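User: Second chain of the day. Same drill as before.
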Amino acid sequence: MIERREDVIIITATRNWLQNSNHSQAEFATEMLAPNVKSQEPQGDEVSYTKWRQNITQRVSCIMTGKQPFPLTWKWAWIEALPDEIRKVVESELAALSGYLHVMPTLEGAETVEANTSKIYSEDIICYINFRFFPFT
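Assistant: Same format as last time:
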């Protein structure tokens, strides 16, 4: 059985997205992830900005290559930094890994959904539930 881990799911999705997009790993680190992890770029001189950019880029590179473990404190910040279509897939995979279904289906072109709860409470369903769970009553 293949071991599925949260960090592998997140990093693999990020790597695949970066390979198929116009973004670089450095752009992801500095422009998309850094604001979410409260690693704001320094104001002022160019030396501190260059050092900050190099540090955050290097840390993300080490995480992406497995040289450094994925920090749990960055988990949701990293996921939020991903584009919506990638983020939704990652969230669904993480939910499935935990034994949950991602309960909100994609509703293409629909703004509202009408529920027909009367079918849920119909006599046939109630009879089935009563028979299934209370067979001796």
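DSSP finds seven helices and no strands in the chain.

User: Great, on to the next one.
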